[in-house]
Design brief:
229 residues; alpha/beta; 6-stranded mixed sheet; 4-stranded antiparallel sheet; 7 helices; globular; binds adenosine-5'-diphosphate
């Protein structure tokens, strides 16, 4: 108990974009460790590199330098196929906009990633329903995304992101598109889920009230990751 176990480690990460010949340094030897069961808020102004950092951590983008480790395993020199596999099994993503599949029901949206991962349909259905129940949106299971409120859509998206029991949840302003009351409600659901499941979560947010409820807070400054009080 209380043992620190890194699930995600970013070491010496460099990343720059080439903006019509002018290099834009977004990450400059950035270091970060996320431990099992930990929730960390990433609070920084727009344009400082929050999404980029989440993409690097989530193996969606390769850094120009440095190491990304998941559970002690380096992901730097592995093939794109291998990265996709790890991303599907070990990483859950939640975005500001839900990106649920419009032609499927809430339940089906949570079932689909599990079935892609090879789970039997009945088991996927059971697990999807349990997750929707946990996030208190099971009564809307048979509805399509367009028939759900913003808060309900986001709770379904959270259920989908953890449907394959990932190790790490990465969220990019998951409540940024919601009113304050709904935002608080969705965030509580997310925090409870993380706590219950022992997941680790890195959540970019502009909401300082929500950020204060997490275990740690970090920011980005001049390409470096700094701990906030
Ligand atoms: P944040 O999420 O904090 O708003 P981003 O990670 O989206 O910041 O972007 C960091 C910086 O990198 C911004 O200045 C943005 O304009 C720039 N940027 C992001 N993606 C690209 C890209 N694909 N090509 C060039 N510049 C980019």
């Amino acid at each position: 108990m209380g043992e620190r176990m890194p699930v995600l480690r970013l070491q010496d990460i460099d990343l720059h974009y080439n903006n019509s010949g002018k290099p834009l340094v977004v990450l400059d030897r950035a270091d970060f460790i996320l431990n099992r069961g930990e929730t960390v808020a990433l609070v920084a102004p727009s344009g400082t590199g929050k999404s980029t950092l989440l993409h690097v951590a989530g193996l969606l983008e390769r850094p120009d330098g440095g190491q990304v480790e998941l559970c002690g395993k380096s992901c730097s020199h592995i093939s794109d196929d291998e990265r996709t596999k790890i991303r599907r099994s070990d990483i859950g993503f939640v975005y500001q906009f839900h990106y649920l599949l419009p032609e499927f029901t809430a339940l089906e949206n949570v079932m689909i990633p599990q079935m892609i991962a090879g789970l039997d349909k009945k088991i996927a259905q059971y697990r999807a329903f349990k997750l929707l129940e946990y996030l208190r949106v099971a009564h809307r299971a048979a509805h399509r995304p367009a028939e759900l409120s913003g808060g309900e859509q986001q709770r379904v998206a959270i259920a989908r992101s953890v449907a394959n029991a990932p190790l790490v949840l990465l969220a990019d302003e998951p409540t940024g598109n919601l009113d304050p009351v709904t935002s608080e409600y969705v965030f509580r659901a997310l925090a409870a889920l993380v706590q219950q499941s022992g997941l680790a979560a890195l959540i970019a947010t502009h909401n300082h009230t929500l950020a204060r409820q997490m275990n740690r807070r970090i920011t980005l400054q001049d390409g470096k990751i700094l701990e906030l009080a």
